[in-house]
Amino acid sequence: MIAFNAVRFRVKPGRDQEFLDAHKNVHAEWAGLRHVNMIKTGDHSYCIIAEWTDMDALAAARPRMIATLNSFRDTLEDLGGGLGLTDPVAGPVVLALK
C-alpha cells in the first residue's frame, strides 16, 4: 500500500538557499521512493512530502533520511513546543481521493 511522509522545517534567516541546496544535492535513488516535493509554507518555513511504494520502503530509508538531515541540521531552527528541529509524520494511504 502506498505511503507518504511529510516533514516540517524552519530555516534560520539567511540560510534558505543552503537548506534547499542540501536537498538538491541528495541523490535520492532510494528503493521504493516514488516522488518528492519541497513546499515553501512561509518565511523560512518548508515542508517536504515524499511518496513511497509502501511503509516497509519508507522505514528502510529512515537511516538515509537521518543522514541527509545531519548534512543540513545546522541550518534549522527549533520549531518550538517541544518538537525540536523537525516535525515528521508518515503513514499508509487510507483513502485515495484523486
Report on this model:
- By secondary structure, the protein is α+β, with helices and mostly antiparallel strands.
- 28% of the residues lie in helices and 33% in strands.
- It has one domain (3-77): Alpha-Beta Plaits (2-Layer Sandwich), CATH 3.30.70.
- The protein has helices spanning 16-24, 55-72, and strands at residues 3-10, 33-42, 45-52, 87-92.
- A four-stranded antiparallel beta sheet has the order 2-3-1-4.
Q: Using DSSP, what is the number of strands?
A: 4
The proportion of residues in beta strands is 25-35%
Biggest sheet features: 4 strands, antiparallel
> pLDDT under 50 segments (min length 5)?
none
Oligomer: single chain
- Assign the CATH class: Alpha Beta
What is the CATH architecture annotation? 2-Layer Sandwich
- Structural class assignment: alpha+beta
Radius of gyration: 14 Å
Roughly what percent helix? 25-40%
Question: What's the short version?
Answer:
The chain is α+β, with helices and mostly antiparallel strands. The chain has helices spanning 16-24, 55-72, and strands at residues 3-10, 33-42, 45-52, 87-92.
Topology of this protein?
Layout: E1 3-10, H1 16-24, E2 33-42, E3 45-52, H2 55-72, E4 87-92
Antiparallel strand pairs: 1-3, 1-4, 2-3
Top keywords for this entry?
4-stranded antiparallel sheet; 4 strands; alpha+beta; 98 residues; Alpha-Beta Plaits; 2 helices
